[in-house]
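Pilot study result, target chain (326 residues):
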Amino acid sequence: MRLMLSAAALSLLALAGSAMAQVTPSDYAALVEPDDREESAAGPLKERLAADPADWAAARDLLLVYERFGDFEVGLPLGARLGAEMPDDRKVLEARMVLATRRIDDASLFSKKSAATELLSLCEAERKRDPRSVPAVTCIAQYHLVAPSIAGGDTAKADEAIAAMQALDEGQYLLLRANQALSNDDLAEGQKKLTEAMSRLTDASDLAGAGVLLGRLGDVDGAFLALDKAMSVDPADPFTLYQRGRAVAVTGRNLDSGREALLRFLSGSAWIGGVNYRAAAHWRLGMVYQAMGDRVTAEKAYKRALVLEPKHKEAQAALKALKTAG
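Predicted structure:
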């Protein structure tokens, strides 16, 4: 079940991985990190809307900012209005789903059930409006696979949604079948379906998510194949960049590519679906530099992670071990 829950979470993070063009710094010393605060990203868009409340393009971009930072309190009401104005805009729908899921994550134990019910209502309403909506069908399937831990799922409804996906998107269908197998602790079948999905998926973040799960299942070669394909599809996708760098840091393979991916990631926004990966990326980058034999830069990266997140236990341990090793 643990791997299954991770699969659902990775799918939602993938939706939230908005592409931002980044230029790879030549080295760690040349890294310039952006002003990565919600108010900085949202401010100009709010000004545009104040000048013209009917500027739906600005409103849509503002929703995507709220999605990136996980600000569901203001993002969900805005998303509902945009959903009415732009019912066929997939990005608007996906942003609403990510924010609704973020609300579940942040809800108290007693509020999770109602928050989960709201997510399901959103997805069911979209599927009723458009029976061929891939995000809606995916959402419903994942909900019923994961929901026993929150509000009670329905395996029959999950299976129906998964079966319906086959005619809509073969890659997503195989991902859902992988999720289903993992939820039943059938790791071999889950790995098989993830491998099959790699040849059908066309979205970088979906491929990166599959790669992460393959790595957790012990298929390191398959994980790198998925991540390599994700990089070829969209070299600027933040979720892909982070996961590529993380995989390199963990395995010690393809060190140069991992360093490049993390430097590029840190050059843009480090928020994905309401989670800030900046400190984690510096820690992972320190691991890469240490594996490359550059202890000085590794120490700088670990220290930077601790400036950003003073209680980052992994960075603390890595820095202590580096100093102890002399």
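One observation from the pilot: The radius of gyration is 20 Å. A full batch analysis is planned for the follow-on phase.
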